[in-house]
Amino acid sequence: MAVNLAAQISHFSDLRAIAVTVQDAAGQPVTDLSLKNFAVTEDGKPQRVVVCAYQDFTQFPPGPPTAPAAVTLQPERPGSLLYNDRRLLVFYFDSTDMPAAERASAQAAALEFVETRMAPQDLVAVLALRGEGLAILSDFTDDRTALAAVLQHLSDDTLPVPPCESTGAAFCFEPPPPETARFQALDSAMRMLAALSERKALVYFSSGIGRRQGSNGAFPMAIAADAMRYRISINPIETSRTAGADDASGDFPGLARDTGGIAALDGADLTGAIARVEEANVSYYLLLYWVPSDATLGNRAYNADVSLAGARPGWNLSYRRGALYTPWRDGRERDTETVLNAALYTNDPPIRQDLYATVGPARPVEGLLSVPVNVEVPGPSLALLHYAGNTAPFPFQVAIAVTDRDGKTVAYQRDTVTAPADTFSVPIPRLPSIEYRTSFRLDPGDYQLRVAILTPIPFPGTYRASFSVEAASHR
C-alpha cells in the first residue's frame, strides 16, 4: 500500500527520517504502534514527528516482478515513499583490486542469492566500482531474470559509468588517487541512496580491505556519518580467503560497526553472508520529522534520540542516531588556539580532515631518547581546500602533544606550515602531500601522541595513537 506523505505533512522544510526497530521481550516485532507512541529529540531538542509508517516485510503478497527502471537510481517523489514495505538491498562490487577468481566467486554468490534465496519483499540494486569509476548497473528491482542478466556481465566494459560530478559526490578526482578511490565512490553511492527515505542495506564485496598505516580515518568517518544520516547500513563481505581476524580493525569493518551492518571477513560462504544481511534487516517504523528551514541544520552532523511511550518491560528499540560524531563548531567561531587545544584534549576528538601521523624508532640523545614524529596532510585534503576556493599559499596550523599514561602533557609543539605557492600547479589527482617533521626527547615509558591541524576549511583534523619508548633504546 502506498504511503502518501503529502497528505500528512502541511509544510516541507528540512525533513528528517529515522528508521526504528521495536521488538518485545521475546525478540518478536511490535507491530501496532502509532505516531503518538514515539518522541524524537535532535541534539537534545524535541522535534515534531509528522509521520510514522510501519514497513512490514512479513505480509508482502507475491506478484509479477517489477522491472528495473533506466540505469539510474530513481528518487522518490516529494510526499510519497517509493518502495513501501520492501526490503532494499544494494549489491556493491568493488573490483578495483579484486582478482578474477574472487570476482567470479562474488558474482556466483550474488547470483545464487538472487535465484534461490531472494524473498518476495526484497528489491535489489547493483552498483560496481571499476577502474573507470562507479557504475549503476541496475535500479532496485525484484525481477530475478533482469538481475541475473546484470550479474552475469559484471565485467562488461560497455556498461555506462556516470562522471563523478553527476553523482553528487562531495569530492571528485578524475581519475581518483588509489588511496581515495574507494571512499570517493562510496560517497557518491551514499548521496544517490539518500534520495530514498527507506532503510537501505549496502552489501560491499571487496578484497583485502584495510586502512593505510597511520591514517586517522577521516574519509570513512565522513562516510559513516552520511550512511547513518541516510539510513544505510554498510555490510562488507571479504572475497579473499587469505583475510583473517587482523582485518577486523580496518576501515570497512569499522563502517559495519558504526552503521549497524554485518562484516563477513573470512572469504567463505559469500551467499550465506548476503543472507545474514537480509535476515538482519527486519520490519521497522519509519519516522519523519521536520526542522524549521531557518535552523540551517541540513548538512551538519546531528544526533537524534527516540523514546517510546507505552513500552512494556523487555521491549527494545534499535536505531542509528543520525550522525557518527558530536557536532563540532565551525573553527571560525573561536580563536585558533582555543580550537586546536580543544581538538587535542577533548574526549570526543573531531575527525573532519584526512591526516596521517607516524612515530619512528627512538635514538639516544644527551641522556634522553629522541622520538621522531612525522605528520602528513595528503593530497586529497589539499584538493578539498582547492575546491572550497582557497588558493596557495595558505597556512596549516599544527599542534602536537605527547601525554603520559596519566594524561599529563610531557611534550608540546605548536607551529605553522605554509603550503607552497605552486601547490596547485600540478593536476589535482597528483597533488603531493605536505609533511611536517619534528621530534621529542622522552624518557622510557608509555605515551599517547595527539595531533591537531587547522586549515582554511576550517574544521580541525586530529590523530591519536599510543606508543612506547623502550629503555633498551638507550644502548
How would you describe what is shown here?
The protein has helices at residues 100-117, 144-151, 178-193, 218-229, 251-259, 270-280, 336-345, 379-387, and strands spanning 14-23, 38-42, 45-55, 87-94, 122-130, 133-141, 200-206, 232-238, 284-291, 304-308, 316-318, 356-359, 363-365, 368-377, 395-404, 409-418, 434-442, 445-454, 461-469. Helix content is 20%, strand content 31%. Mean pLDDT is 77; it is low at 1-13, 167-177, 293-299 and 324-333. It is α+β, with helices and mostly antiparallel strands and 475 residues long. The longest helix is centred in the first third of the chain and has 18 residues, at 100-117. The termini are far apart.
**What sort of overall outline do the alpha carbons produce when their principal axes are compared?**
globular
Task: Provide the helix percentage.
Answer: 10-25%
Q: Using DSSP, what is the number of strands?
A: 19
Summed over residues and divided by their number, the pLDDT gives a mean of 77
